[in-house]
Amino acid sequence: MQTVAVLSLKGGVGKTTVVLGLASAAMRRGVRTLVVDLDPQCNATSCLEPEETTKGLSDVLADPRPEVLREAVSGSSWGEEVDVLVGSEDAESHNGHHDEEHLARLTTALSELDGLIEDGELPYQLVLLDCPPSLGRLTRSALVAADRALLVTEPTIFAVSGVQRAFEAVQAERKSTNPKLQPLGVIVNRVRPRSHEHQFRIDELRDIFGPLVLPVALPDRLAVQQAQGACMPIHQWGTPGAREVALAFNLVLARTLRAGRQRRPDEDELEEDE
């Protein structure tokens, strides 16, 4: 099971869009996926339209027992390949605790996922953690639980600053609490290829992050908002713009799954250096 935290420390750059796009690509490929909605705005939950649950994320963080987790996870309207750990608007109340016990509760809950699998069902192959745009306990809990961190940005000056801070947070969490955590890459969202400003910012990102900037960027297409408004996977929207975005998410998913199957040599070297 590959667990990926999707984050930036600037709001509105499209973290939830990336989570939903990856879930859509995974569903298309037959990869069973759990979306964990850590953002108190609950946008991922709204778009996935899960069945009604008696518990939510806030309950799981307060009490990560398997029976609580079972009541907080629901199937989505997208299909049987995508489930949701339902978001909670009151999850913001958990953002103030930073002690080790609280940070580990999401990890504890996710370790019980296999117990939710019923006879004949495939286990979860991919867990996507949709983080809020702040470095409170919710985001830190995701970084403690994740194998990889996918950093999301737009090609604008403030978004570039936000992704730099997010990368620093990933590195800090790796050193302090989660040595297996590695950056999966930086994905640039809402790119307009003919914009000189966008190209300048992408070049700036490559100067800062080098090969961590994914070679595929997400184009700025109205189809993304249309599909989300209709609570549909981008792969099922069917317009030329949707197909262009869906292809990009297919490539990002392929990179994500490859990262889960094999360790990179430089990861071993990094651990030895520590």
From TrEMBL:
Q: Which domain of life is it from?
A: Bacteria
Residue ranges constituting the AAA domain according to the UniProt record: 1-182
InterPro entries in alphabetical order = AAA_dom, DNA_Partitioning_ATPase, P-loop_NTPase
Do you know which SUPFAM superfamilies this protein is assigned to?
Answer: P-loop containing nucleoside triphosphate hydrolases (SSF52540)
Q: What is this protein called?
A: Cellulose biosynthesis protein BcsQ
Q: What is the lineage of its organism?
A: Bacteria, Bacillati, Actinomycetota, Actinomycetes, Pseudonocardiales
